[in-house]
Design brief:
Helix content is 29%, strand content 21%. The chain is α/β, with parallel strands linked by helices.
């Protein structure tokens, strides 16, 4: 892709995705300008522990997304348990209790598709380890909008179903292990593109 600047990074994962985030989030530069929005398949517990897990190691501010939140550059947003996370004009967050997609709410496809609609070629999408095909259709939307598509190297994923499904649907721009994804994002930041 030849996009000079990317405005947002969307990340999705399921089984094994937390391990990938542990390699990725601590490496995000504190001066990153792009917003980062994350969907992880989690139990429908009303309280997520993701902020507690990642706040000590991530240099960027972390938030659990709230409906109608404006999306701030250089901020990491996690989808709250049992809500789809969508992006809307503003840009701002929209939460939904629509039916699960691939048995999941939040759904990676829902985030990726709404982000592709909003950001077009200014979007980076990262699909991580997971045990179903959620995210593959979303990657197609990102590819159709000329966004940058990154998939976790299946051999580095504890559960490779999700990255393999994504790679079956689109030609990824990069297929990398988590540390490689972190290095790529850091490199794009150094180039002034994130």
């Amino acid at each position: 892709m030849t996009q000079d600047r990317y405005a947002a990074i969307v990340v999705g994962g399921s089984s094994g995705g937390i391990e990938a985030l542990m390699a990725l989030l601590p490496e995000l530069p504190p001066t990153l300008r792009a917003a980062v929005l994350i969907v992880m398949h989690m139990p429908r517990d009303p309280r997520s522990r993701l902020l507690e897990i990642f706040r000590p190691t991530c240099a960027l501010p972390l938030r659990e997304a709230q409906d109608k939140d404006p999306i701030s550059p250089g901020t990491v947003y996690f989808a709250p348990p049992d809500y789809h996370l969508l992006l809307d004009q503003g840009p701002r967050v929209a939460l939904s209790v629509d039916a699960p997609v691939h048995y999941s709410r939040p759904s990676i496809d829902v985030l990726f598709e709404s982000a592709a609609d909003l950001y077009g070629d200014e979007l980076v999408a990262v699909l991580l380890s997971g045990g179903n095909e959620d995210g593959a259709r979303g990657l197609q939307a990102v590819r159709a909008a000329n966004g940058l598509v990154i998939v976790q190297e299946p051999s580095s994923a504890p559960v490779s179903t999700m990255p393999l499904a994504g790679m079956a649907r689109v030609d990824a721009d990069h297929v990398l292990p988590p540390k490689g994804i972190a290095a790529l994002i850091a490199g794009l930041h150094r180039q002034g593109r994130l």
